[in-house]
Design goal:
- The complex is a heterodimer of chains A (273) and B (168).
- Chain A contains 2 helices and 19 strands.
- Chain A is mainly β and 273 residues long.
- In chain A, the strands form 3 sheets. In chain A, strands 2, 5, 6, 9, 10, 11, 15, 16, 18 and 19 form a 10-stranded mixed sheet that branches. In chain A, strands 1, 3, 4, 7 and 8 form a 5-stranded antiparallel sheet that branches. In chain A, strands 12, 13, 14 and 17 form a 4-stranded antiparallel sheet that branches.
- With 168 residues, chain B is mostly beta strands.
- In chain B, the strands form 2 sheets. A 5-stranded mixed sheet of chain B has the order 4-3-2-6-7. Chain B has a 4-stranded antiparallel sheet with strand order 5-1-9-8, with no helix packed on it.
- The chains are: A mainly beta (273), B mainly beta (168).
């Protein structure tokens, strides 16, 4: 465990644990939930909840920390979050949609995870590449480095949608919309592509889970797989918010011996016409 | 005033057939016995049979909102917003107007506003969305070919009788 985390709250520790084990089936889910995704008028705002939980979209575990919050406006410029607050179970912030078009609201992290043995004991460390040299003892053995890029995001549109903010950054696992993420309707099919470092992510498993299942017996989750072009198509069974998650791990280690791991989570609202 | 053109001259216009005719749309807003009533937002538009919007004819919304916030709820007319509204600027001259009280209302679209409507099959859409109330869309299919036509449909919650009359 990173020494810097020891002084922080239990919530932060729990969140670090959730981050450290994203590929375990039982891992808590990270999500952002906007108050609305399709808006009209001259003074449009959304408020966004960000949390980590088992049930979607219920505040019951820990808040999402927003160090990597990155909001991109319809002109590609950065937009500042307002009224940011982190409580016991959720973080909250507001976004003013001052210009018409589509906004991408993302929380992105890019860090290094290192597992190693020292004195026969298994250790894990998480931090930035710059901090690594000082953090890992020189006599550590079985050192395994993994670069972990995570993106948790959602989209909102004021007025007519556009696609400037939707362009992939080329780093980590990203979703490139074929169907606009704010033009999703119950009973219709939507197609998206997953890209890893900007290249099609073929044969990747995608989980699509509806929110609001707290009052239902059937969780209604769908498991899909991307095709050779990294594309997958979802037909939304009913209106509501959906959580879409995919992850990629492994592959050939890069020249510096660092393995890759990437997580994508998107929240999408499906409307009824 | 209608200008009658000689047949020979009309033939010369064959490439851009003048299908113009007045369109009269009747919309009934039902009276409700509810504790909190606000007149509905109503959008009226012509679409192709595949739902592609062709022309928005009328949008009744809170144009007189003291804070100028009436446009905030335009998106609640979800079908119109998706198909047409999101790309339009409101208020729009000759299209937008204030909300209407319960009762029967009539919109007359003069031939001049429909002169660029190509002959073919269309659907008249009327969508109503009410604050703290419901939402409903009523559709009337019609053919635009220069001939007289009549259509009618009835809503079940947010709209009453909706009628369409085309006079050549």
């Amino acid at each position: 465990m990173n020494r810097k985390l020891l002084g922080r709250t239990a919530a932060a520790l729990a969140f670090a644990a959730a981050l450290a084990a994203p590929l375990v089936a039982s891992a808590h889910r990270q999500w952002m939930l906007p108050s609305m995704t399709v808006l009209s008028g001259n003074d449009a705002w959304v408020t966004v909840d960000a949390a980590v939980s088992n049930d979607l979209f219920v505040f019951e575990h820990v808040p999402m920390r927003l160090e990597g919050l990155m909001i991109t406006g319809p002109d590609g410029e950065k937009v500042e979050a307002k009224n940011q607050h982190t409580g016991k179970y959720r973080s909250v912030f507001d976004v003013q949609l001052a210009k018409p078009g589509t906004y991408r609201i993302a929380n992105v992290s890019d860090s290094l995870m290192v597992s190693y043995k020292i004195g026969g004991e298994q250790k894990r460390w998480r931090g930035s590449e710059a901090e690594m040299a000082a953090a890992i003892p020189a006599d550590a053995t079985e050192v395994k480095k993994t670069n972990s890029v995570r993106r948790v995001e959602t989209f909102v549109t004021s007025g007519a949608p556009n696609d400037v903010a939707l362009k992939a950054t080329g780093k980590g696992l990203e979703l490139v919309p074929v169907t606009h993420p704010n033009d999703l309707f119950s009973g219709e099919a939507a197609t998206f592509a997953l890209v890893m470092d900007g290249k099609p992510a073929a044969n990747v498993e995608v989980t699509v889970a509806p929110g609001g299942v707290r009052y239902l017996d059937d969780r209604g989750e769908m498991t899909l797989k991307t095709d050779a072009e990294g594309r997958f198509t979802v037909t939304w069974p009913r209106p509501g918010f959906y959580w879409v998650e995919a992850s990629v791990r492994g592959g050939a280690p890069a020249a510096n011996g660092v393995e890759r791991s990437a997580l994508y989570v998107g929240t999408f609202e499906v409307l009824k016409e | 005033m209608r200008i009658v053109l000689p047949a020979a001259l009309l033939a010369g216009f064959a490439a851009t057939p003048a299908m113009a005719g007045d369109m009269t749309i009747g919309i009934e807003i039902p009276r409700m016995t509810v504790a909190e009533y606000h007149p509905p937002y109503v959008a009226v538009w012509i679409a192709k049979p595949d739902e592609t919007a062709v022309k928005t004819l009328a949008v009744w919304y809170d144009t007189k909102n003291p804070k100028g916030e009436g446009a905030t709820w335009l998106k609640d007319m979800r079908q119109w917003w998706r198909r047409a509204g999101k790309s339009m600027t409101m208020p729009a001259n000759g299209i937008s107007g204030p909300t209407k009280s319960p009762g029967k209302h009539q919109i007359v679209i003069p031939a001049a506003r429909l002169k660029d409507l190509a002959p073919g099959a269309y659907v008249l859409n009327v969508e109503a969305a009410r604050e703290v109330g419901g939402k409903e869309v009523v559709k009337i299919p019609f053919t635009w070919n220069g001939k007289a036509a009549k259509g009618a449909a009835k809503g079940s919650s947010e709209l009453g009788a909706v009628t369409l009359t085309i006079k050549p």
